[in-house]
């Protein structure tokens, strides 16, 4: 050992024999490198399976939420259909805005229907049928349009169709509108979220 002033001191001495400075021996911790490595290896051994399990759960829950699937193998098709205001409705809106006349009927978030914003879209209203057929033309699920809301230039009505069984192809129609055709892979890629725009 060495004293604070640099003199050599015996391991069993508490004071330096030359200068009298106290010498404090540092406690020595026993170190077993084999035991430390085994402890770390034991921790790593459990860490990998636990992380793998957590990752599997996260992926499974994410896929379930993203794809809208359930234990019966069905999906929910959700989304919206927007009816863009035609020229006549847009002119009325522009006149109100130019005159700065408050009109609660056209306020953002107010209830609306397709007929209100564009001629020929009276079938696009809350409660209107949303029909899903398979590739053979058989109806496999139905739903309804929900309450529409005015945005600023369109009436947006939410679409919800629950319990849609898996099919290779889907034909989806809203009200009297024509059918839109999608493969299962396309709808899956879209997260079963359908965004349609008509009118204008």
Structure write-up:
The protein folds into three domains: 1-28, no CATH class; 31-67; 74-199, no CATH class. Helix content is 29%, strand content 29%. The chain contains four helices and nine strands, in the order αβαβαββββββαβ. Strands 1, 2, 3, 4, 5, 6, 7, 8 and 9 form a nine-stranded mixed beta sheet that branches. The chain is elongated. Mean pLDDT is 77; it is low at 63-70.
How can the largest sheet be summarized? 9 strands, mixed
Residue-averaged pLDDT:
77
Overall, the morphology is elongated
Q: In which range does the helix fraction lie? A: 25-40%
Which percent band covers the strand fraction?
A: 25-35%
Whole-number total of structural domains: 3
* CA-atom Rg in angstroms: 36 Å
Number of strands: 9
N-to-C terminal Cα separation, in Å? Answer: 92 Å
Element pattern in H and E:
HEHEHEEEEEEHE
- Helical element count? 4
Structural class: alpha+beta
Unreliably modeled segments: 63-70
Oligomerization category of the chains in this entry: single chain
Keywords:
200 residues, nine-stranded mixed sheet, 4 helices, 9 strands, 29% helix
Short account of what is shown:
By secondary structure, the protein is α+β, with helices and mostly antiparallel strands. The protein is 29% helix and 29% strand.
SSE layout:
Elements: H1 33-67, E1 74-84, H2 87-99, E2 111-112, H3 114-117, E3 129-134, E4 139-145, E5 148-150, E6 154-165, E7 169-174, E8 180-183, H4 184-189, E9 193-199
Parallel strand pairs: 1-9
Antiparallel strand pairs: 1-6, 2-5, 3-4, 3-7, 4-6, 5-6, 7-8
């Amino acid at each position: 050992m060495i004293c604070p002033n640099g003199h050599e001191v015996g391991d069993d001495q508490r004071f330096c024999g030359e200068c009298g400075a106290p010498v404090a021996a540092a406690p020595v911790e026993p170190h077993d490198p084999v035991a430390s490595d085994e402890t770390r290896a034991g921790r790593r051994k459990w860490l990998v399976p636990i992380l793998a399990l957590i990752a599997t759960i996260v992926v499974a829950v994410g896929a379930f939420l993203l794809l809208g699937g359930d234990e019966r193998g069905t999906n929910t098709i959700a989304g919206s259909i927007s009816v863009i205001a035609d020229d006549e409705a847009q002119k009325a809106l522009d006149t109100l805005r130019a005159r700065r006349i408050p009109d609660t009927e056209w306020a953002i978030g107010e209830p609306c229907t397709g007929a209100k914003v564009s001629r020929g879209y009276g079938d696009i209203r809350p409660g209107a049928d949303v029909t899903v057929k398979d590739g053979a033309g058989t109806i496999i699920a139905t739903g309804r349009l929900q309450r529409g809301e005015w945005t600023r230039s369109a009436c947006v009505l939410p679409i919800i169709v629950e319990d849609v069984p898996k099919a290779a192809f889907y034909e989806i129609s809203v009200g009297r509108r024509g059918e839109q055709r999608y493969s299962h892979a396309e709808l899956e890629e879209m997260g079963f979220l359908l965004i349609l725009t008509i009118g204008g």
